[in-house]
């Protein structure tokens, strides 16, 4: 007997989530602001609710995946009373503060709340590569873990509902930082008419070789010990000038790489190898 589920929001991600629930045999009810998005899901057996309230009342487990926090509240605030006694799983991208606020709002309406960060693209939903981070009600997670596993590998982080959003944004930060460097690298080789496709395998090999160094940086960030015995920060800051100068000489924008140069210079000035500590200095130390 599979748990009935409701999916609110049928964008690219919501449709993938609803499809994965259908594939694993869950009675699935869907709703979307604009009609027509549910047609293909209805053909696969989904029940299409006429209103958001009808969608919520159809299932004990309500998954919402909308554009942003504002859209979540636009849809759910008017139907809040229908959430009482149900579990709300919010897979909409947002901030830790928004997650905590929505958790308080859900508690006020006597709904169990899980906030989630989807670390997958729609084609990866229902497949083993992706994962979804959850935080908030442990009881809700334990009760629905098997159902949520239909979407992607579920990983529970913490009772603080904001933790999943924090991890999600930190993981995206790592991804965007890496791709910012990738785009600069490809622009640099293309500025001398080297096809990006020809250079890409070398870039992949280099990034793959360098990636494990993040564990050294992580350990250094936690311990405060110097981590630059093999590659001193001063040497890196000196070499980095060549990267910037060459970019300018080749007519390649330095917008993606200037910030790292500035951070290396600050580390030299402050005689530290703890780049993480320099960035995090404005915040209290981690608990
Ligand atoms: P889409 O842009 O494809 O879909 C957005 C959805 O939000 C639509 O269902 C849209 O309804 C709805 N919506 C927007 N504004 C409102 C509103 N004011 N009231 C009601 N409904 C509204 O986005 P995705 O499906 O790709 O993404 C959804 C969430 O999933 C986002 O938070 C995103 O960050 C997250 N995510 C997406 C990933 C991806 O690769 N796509 C990966 C990981 C997370 P309508 O059809 O009526 O416009």
From TrEMBL:
GO MF terms held by the record: NADP binding; oxidoreductase activity
Domain 6-phosphogluconate dehydrogenase NADP-binding: 5-153
Pfam family, one: NAD_binding_2
InterPro entries: 6PGD_dom2, 6PGDH_NADP-bd, HIBADH-related, HIBADH-related_NP60_sf, NAD(P)-bd_dom_sf, RedAm-like_C
Ranges of residues in domain NADPH-dependent reductive aminase-like C-terminal: 160-270
Highest taxon above the source species: Bacteria
Keywords, alphabetical: Oxidoreductase
Family membership: Belongs to the HIBADH-related family.
Name listed for the protein in its UniProt record: 3-hydroxyisobutyrate dehydrogenase-like beta-hydroxyacid dehydrogenase
